[in-house]
Amino acid sequence: MKQTSLVLMLVTILTKIFGLAREKALAHFFGTSAMADLFIVALSIPMLLTNLLTGAISTSYIPVYNEIEQRKGRGRADLFTANVTNSMGIFFFLLSLVAIVFARPLLSLISPGFTGAQMERAVLMTRIFLLSMGTTAVGSIYRAYLQIHNHFVLSVIHPIVMNVLIIFSVAFLSKLGLVPMSLGVLLAFILQFAIFLPFLNKDIFRFVLSSKDPYLKTMIISILPIVLSTSVIEFNFIINKALASLVTSGGISALNYASKLQGFVTGIVISSILTVAYPQMARAIANKDEEGLKKSFSDGLSLMGLLVIPATLGLMAFSDEIVALLFQGGAFSAKDAQMTGGVLFYFALSLPALGFREMVSRIFFASGDVRVPVFNSLLILGLNLGFSIFLSRLLGLAGLGLATSLAMILGGIFLAFSLKKKMKGQLVFFDLLTLGKFLLASIIMVVLSKNAYLFLQGSLGLRLALLVAIALGGLIYLALLWIFRVPEVKEVLKFIGEKRKGKE
After folding, report:
1. Rounded to whole angstroms, how far apart are CA atoms 244 and 240?
2. 126, 46 in Cβ contact below 8 A?
3. How many helices and strands in the chain, by DSSP H and E?
4. Cα–Cα distance between 435 and 419 in angstroms, integer?
5. Which residues pair with 332 in a beta bridge?
6. How far lies 49's CA from each of 70, 134, 227, 320, in Å?
7. pLDDT tens-digit series, residues 217-258
8. Separation between Cα atoms, residue 158 and residue 192, nearest integer Å
9. What is the residue-wise DSSP string for 59-99?
10. How many Cβ atoms sit within 10 Å of the Cβ of residue 492?
11. How far apart are CA 494 and CA 498, in angstroms?
C-alpha cells in the first residue's frame, strides 16, 4: 500500500499544482475584492451539495460493491453500478433544479453580508454552477469504481482538466461578462470526467433503474449518516465563512485561500493514502480478514505520520511566506497575504487530527457502524461553532482558523477512544517511539530551514530563498529519519531504487 500511495502522491502533487494555479488566477485577477467573494460564494452551494452527497455516495458504494463482488461476482456488481449511476444521476439533476429555485435563500443563509446587486450576481452564478450536479454525482461513482479496480492514478487526475478550463474562464471569459465566465466554469465541471470513459467496463453503462434492488437500498440507507459524518469539514467552513463575512471585508476570500493551501496538503497526503487504504480496509472487513485490516490501517497511519507532521510544522513556520509566494501580486496585496497567512497558521494545526480522523472513520463506515462517526461530527460542529464565535472576537479572522483546529483535535481524540473500544484493543494506533522520531526530526527541520531562509533572503531574494529553504528542509528531514532508523524511509529508498533499475 505504501508504494502505491507514494506514486499517487506524486500524481496528486501535479493535480494540486493546477489547483493552486487556479487559486493564483483568482487571486491575481480578483484579489480579496468583492468579486472574489462573489465567485467563491457562488461556488459554495453546488460544491457543498456535491462534496457532501457525492462523497457519501462513493464512500457507501465501495463496501457494498465489494460485498456483491465477493458473493455474486463482478457481473452482478457491475449491474449494481449501472443502477446506482442512473439513479444518482437523475436524483442529483432533480436536486439541482430544487436548489436553483431556492438559490437566493440559500445564499442569504451562508453569506448574510451579501445584499443588492452583489446578491443578484451571486444568485445568477450559483444557478449556472448548479447545473453540473448530475454529472458530478455520476463522475464520483465512476471514480470510486476505478479505485476498486486499482486504477488509482486515473481516478485522481481529472481535476487537471477542470482547473485548466476554470483558469481560462477566469482569465479570458471574465472579460466578456459574468455569464460567459460562469458557463466556462460549468463546462469545466462537466468535461473533467470524460477521461474516465475509455477505462470503464461497458456493462456499467446499461440503462438500469430499479428501486427494488436490495443492495441499492442498503447503500441509500447508509448515505445520510455518512453525509453527516464526512460533512464536518464543509460545515465548519460554512460556519467560518458566515462569520468571516461579518468580521472583515475580504474575510471570505482570505479564509478560502488559506483553506485551499491546507487542502493542498490534505489532498496530496491524506486523500492519497485514503484512496488506497479505504478499498483495502473495506475488502478486509468484507472478508473478515482482521490481519489485513490491521495492516492496511497501521500502514496508512504510519505513512500519514511520516508526512503530515513535517507538513504541519512547515506550514506554520512559513505560513505568511507561502501565501506571499503563491498569491501576492496583481490585486492580491501584501496586507491580503498577511491576513491569509494568519488564518493558514492556525488551520495547519488541524492536519494530524484530520488525517487520523479520516482513517478511523473509514473503518466504521466499512463495518456498517455509522453512529459513532455521526456523533463525532456533530460534536466537532458544536465545538467549532462555540470556539469560532468566541475566538473570532478575540483574534479576528485568525480565530476562525484556531477554532476549526481545536474542534478537529478534540474530535479526533474522542474518535480514537471509540475505535479502541470497538476493536477491543486489537488495533494499535501509533508506535510512540516512531511518532517521537517524526516529531523530533520535524522540529529540527523547521528550525534549520527557517534560519536558512532568514540567512539567504538577503542574497537570493524572498521567494527564491523560501524555495531553497523548503527544499533544504525536506533533505534535512529525510537525513534525520535515516539517522533515526525509521523503517518507512528505507522502504521509500528501496522503492525508488527498484524503479531506477527498471528504467535501466
Report:
1. 6
2. yes
3. 22, 0
4. 19
5. 329
6. 32, 11, 10, 32
7. 888 888 877 777 766 777 777 777 778 767 766 677 788 788
8. 5
9. HHHHHHHHHHHHHH-HHHHHHHHHHHHHHHHHHHHHHHHHH
10. 18
11. 6
